[in-house]
């Protein structure tokens, strides 16, 4: 199986490289498929997402690259649609559905901004109960396919980004596992694919991709489809982890 990546961010959102630079890098790396997946616009937090005007240009630029690179490289125009994005995910080849925020007490709370911010959210909005935070996250994630119409569920256990070695909470806790498995059962029943996402490994936060090993096994037990994703924000990380984790996945879309 030739390498591929379906989760790629550009300078239209929080990536470091243009679509043109990333397409050239993918071709040079021998990729079969490159899926662009810009962060959908979230009007309540515009720090990292595509602007409304940028979204339109992003679509035009990627469509031009599709024609330019065919048939040497298969390019897909995608979107990473957040649960709380305002714009519908229309006009794309594929959609990644992700939960980057929880809505609580009238605020949109980023779940993976940084460790201190996450701990502050848990303290201020969940009374210090990390398992209540996890239950809220996974209940929201369970609904992401209905909400976004996604083909792929993004970084399933994203809230564990800063929990290497269990420094913040116990991922074997019954409440955590029950919440995660309830979300997995619903989503697997809806036929979506799940990422093996190496982004946090490339950034030094984790030593293994999302999802954790026990969740990966649970996905396999349910016959869920797995796709590789480097969650690329830099051209030199386009295939980060492919040699180790790519063989665990099926072919690209």
Automatic annotation (TrEMBL):
Gene3D superfamilies: Metal-dependent hydrolases. The keyword Repressor does not apply. Residues 6-198 form the PHP domain. InterPro entries: Histidinol_P_phosphatase_HisJ, PHP_dom, Pol/histidinol_Pase-like. Its EC number is 3.1.3.15. It comes from the Bacteria. Pathway: Amino-acid biosynthesis; L-histidine biosynthesis; L-histidine from 5-phospho-alpha-D-ribose 1-diphosphate: step 8/9. It catalyses: L-histidinol phosphate + H2O = L-histidinol + phosphate. Keywords: Amino-acid biosynthesis, Histidine biosynthesis, Hydrolase. Belongs to the PHP hydrolase family. HisK subfamily. This is Histidinol-phosphatase. It comes from Allofournierella massiliensis. The lineage of its organism: Bacteria, Bacillati, Bacillota, Clostridia, Eubacteriales.
């Amino acid at each position: 199986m030739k390498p591929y990546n379906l989760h790629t961010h550009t300078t239209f959102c929080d990536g470091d490289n243009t679509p043109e630079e990333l397409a050239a890098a993918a071709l040079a790396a021998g990729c079969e498929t490159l899926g662009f997946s810009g962060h959908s616009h979230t009007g309540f937090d515009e720090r990292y997402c595509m602007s409304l005007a940028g979204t339109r240009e992003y679509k035009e630029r990627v469509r031009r690259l599709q024609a330019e690179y065919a048939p040497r490289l298969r390019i897909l125009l995608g979107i990473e649609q957040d649960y709380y994005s305002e714009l519908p995910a229309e006009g794309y080849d594929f959609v990644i559905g992700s939960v980057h925020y929880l809505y609580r007490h009238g605020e949109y709370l980023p779940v993976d901004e940084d460790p201190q911010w996450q701990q502050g959210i848990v303290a201020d909005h969940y009374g210090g109960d990390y398992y209540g935070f996890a239950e809220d996250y996974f209940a929201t994630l369970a609904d992401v396919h209905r909400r976004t119409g996604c083909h792929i569920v993004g970084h399933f256990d994203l809230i564990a980004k800063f929990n290497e070695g269990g420094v913040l909470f116990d991922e074997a806790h019954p409440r955590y596992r029950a919440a995660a498995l309830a979300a997995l059962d619903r989503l697997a029943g809806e036929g979506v694919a799940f990422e093996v996402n190496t982004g946090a490994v490339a950034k030094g936060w984790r030593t293994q991709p999302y999802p954790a090993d026990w969740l990966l096994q649970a996905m396999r037990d349910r016959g869920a489809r797995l796709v590789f994703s480097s969650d690329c924000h830099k051209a030199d990380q386009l295939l980060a982890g492919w040699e180790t984790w790519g063989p665990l996945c099926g072919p690209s879309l």
